[in-house]
Amino acid sequence: MNQAPTLLLIDDDLDDQEIFELAVREANSSMQCVYASSGFEALELLENDPSFLPEYIFIDLNMPRMDGRKCLVEIRKMPRLNNVPLIIYSTAEDERSHMETKEMGASKYIVKPSSLSALVDTLAELFKVSI
């Protein structure tokens, strides 16, 4: 039985989660979204459910308690997720954030687009091209 492809979005902003899901549905209607509202929640989900293996993990940088950088480092410590692209999805546009997260193991860095259509285009391209 084929399971629908899944992605995990780690973002504390519920509005951003909703917009992201709308864009994902338009970019790839078969893709399922799972959400974690904090780095701690994401790590708990990934550690406690070994059968959960998303195709992509998107991580917001600016979250309270555990920021995206720390979350990225912790996820990279999980061998079963070595082949899962970890994508930073943030409003931070500075080159330093891009470079730091790449060195920490991020597969890609996407600046949150200002429009839904731009996000749809970005995600459609990402899903079409394997990282």
TrEMBL record:
Q: Which SMART domains does the protein's record reference?
A: REC
Response regulatory domain location, by residue?
Answer: 6-127
Q: What InterPro entries does this protein's entry cite?
A: CheY-like_superfamily, Sig_transdc_resp-reg_receiver, TCS_response_regulator
| Keyword Phosphoprotein appears in the UniProt entry | yes
Q: Which UniProt keywords apply?
A: Phosphoprotein
Keyword flag Phosphoprotein: yes
Segments forming a coiled coil: none
Residues spanning the membrane: none
Question: Any signal peptide, and if so, which residues?
Answer: none
Q: What is the name of the protein in this document?
A: Response regulator
Species of origin: Pinibacter soli
